[in-house]
From TrEMBL:
CDD domains: CobW-like (cd03112)
Protein's name in the database: GTPase
UniProt cross-references to InterPro entries, sorted A to Z: CobW-likC_sf (IPR036627), CobW-like_C (IPR011629), CobW/HypB/UreG_nucleotide-bd (IPR003495), P-loop_NTPase (IPR027417), Zinc-reg_GTPase_activator (IPR051316)
Reactions that this protein is recorded to catalyse: GTP + H2O = GDP + phosphate + H(+)
Length: 325
C-alpha cells in the first residue's frame, strides 16, 4: 500500500511557556485539517483529560475530526498505533503534532523519524517549534536544556509578550538569535497564531533556504553575563570548495563534535559544479543533495550554519579555511 508521508511538527518549550494552550487552540480551530496530537504524560495540564484515560496509550477522535493521543511510554509505540488505526480506517488524520515535555530534549524525538525505516517512510518531520516564555526566559535559559530547545527550533514562538517591556523583548530577541540564527521569531498571543507559522515549515527539507535569521541585523555583544552554551556559528566563503577536502572536514567535525551539533545546514559552491550542494543534519545524522544551478546574476557564496553546544569556533573556522580549492 502506498502512502503519502504524514507531516510531523514537534512542539517544544520550557515549563509554563504555553504549549498546552497552543495545542488547545490548534485542536479547536475551524481549520478543516485532520490533526493528530501526541501528548506525553508530563504535560503541565492535559489537553482533554475528561476524555482520555490513564492507560499506556489512549486515542480519542474529537468533534472537529482531530485526534488526541496521550502516551505513558514509548513514542514509537504511539506512532505505530496511530498508523495501525489509520490504516484500518478507525481514525483519520493527515498531520501530526508531538508535544514534548517542558524538560525534554527534542533530539531523540527528531531522531526517531530518521532511524526507523518504516517510520521514515510513513512520516516526514516538518519542523520543530519552540515556545519561549518572555516573562521567565532569563530564568529558563540559565538551563542548558532550555537553550537546546531553542537551538533545535525551526520557529521560535514568544509567549507572554505583553508582560515585558520593549527593551526586555528586544534583549530576548537578540539572545535567541545568537543561539539560533536559522529560526525566525514570532509572537504568540494566548495560544493564537497564524497556522502558517506552525505547519508546512519544511525545516528538514533539503533546499537552499537557510532561514531569515541569517539576514538579521548585526547582533549586539553579550553584556553582563557569560555567553550561552548553545550558540550559532556561521561559516562563509566566496571561494569554491574542494569536495574531497569538504568531506574530510565534515567527517572530522562529526567524529569529534557530532553529539554537540544540534542542527546544521549548508548551501555550498563546489568547484567545477554548476549546481548548489545542500546538506543538513541533526547531531550525527545528516543528508545532502544537489539543488538548482547557480544563477549568473548571484554571487556563488558558500554558507554553513552550525548550532551547537560549546563548539570550538576558532578550530572549526581554521578547518573550514582549508576546504577552499
Amino acid at each position: 500500500m502506498s502512502h503519502f508521508p504524514i507531516p510531523v511538527t514537534v512542539l517544544s518549550g520550557f515549563l509554563g511557556a504555553g504549549k498546552t494552550t497552543l495545542l488547545r487552540y490548534l485542536l479547536k480551530a475551524e481549520h478543516g485539517l485532520k490533526i493528530a496530537v501526541i501528548e506525553n504524560e508530563f504535560a503541565e495540564t492535559g489537553i482533554d483529560t475528561q476524555l482520555l484515560g490513564d492507560g499506556p496509550v489512549q486515542v480519542m477522535t474529537l468533534a472537529n475530526g482531530c485526534v488526541c493521543c496521550t502516551i505513558h511510554g514509548d513514542l514509537e509505540r504511539a506512532l505505530y498505533l496511530l498508523l495501525e488505526r489509520l490504516d484500518s480506517g478507525e481514525i483519520a488524520f493527515d498531520r501530526l503534532v508531538i508535544e514534548c515535555t517542558g524538560l525534554a530534549d527534542p533530539a531523540p524525538v527528531a531522531q526517531t523519524f530518521f532511524v526507523d525505516e518504516e517510520l521514515r517512510e510513513r512520516y516526514i518531520l516538518d519542523g520543530i517549534i519552540t515556545l519561549v516564555d518572555a516573562a521567565h526566559a532569563e530564568q529558563h535559559l540559565m538551563q542548558a536544556i532550555a537553550q537546546a530547545q531553542v537551538g533545535f527550533a525551526d520557529r521560535l514562538l514568544v509567549s507572554k509578550r505583553d508582560l515585558v517591556d520593549e527593551a526586555t523583548f528586544e534583549a530576548l530577541s537578540q539572545r535567541l538569535t545568537r543561539i539560533n540564527r536559522r529560526a525566525p521569531i514570532r509572537v504568540v498571543t494566548h495560544g493564537r497564531i497564524d497556522l502558517a507559522e506552525l505547519l508546512d515549515v519544511r525545516g528538514f527539507n533539503l533546499n537552499a533556504d537557510l532561514g531569515p535569521g541569517l539576514t538579521a541585523r548585526p547582533l549586539l555583544p553579550v553584556r553582563g553575563s557569560a555567553p550561552d552554551r548553545i550558540a550559532s556559528l556561521v561559516l562563509r566563503s566566496e571561494q569554491p570548495l574542494d569536495i574531497d577536502k569538504l568531506s574530510e572536514f565534515m567527517n572530522e567535525l562529526l567524529e569529534n563534535h557530532g553529539n554537540s551539533l544540534l542542527r546544521y545546514k549548508g548551501v555550498l559552491n563546489i568547484t567545477g559544479e554548476p549546481r548548489r550542494m545542500v546538506f543538513q543534519g541533526v547531531l550525527k545524522l545528516y543528508g545532502f543533495d544537489w539543488d538548482a544551478e547557480w544563477r549568473e546574476d548571484e554571487p556563488r557564496e558558500s554558507v554553513i550554519v552550525f548550532i551547537g553546544d560549546n563548539l570550538p569556533e576558532e578550530s572549526i573556522r581554521a578547518g573550514f579555511a582549508g576546504v577552499t580549492a
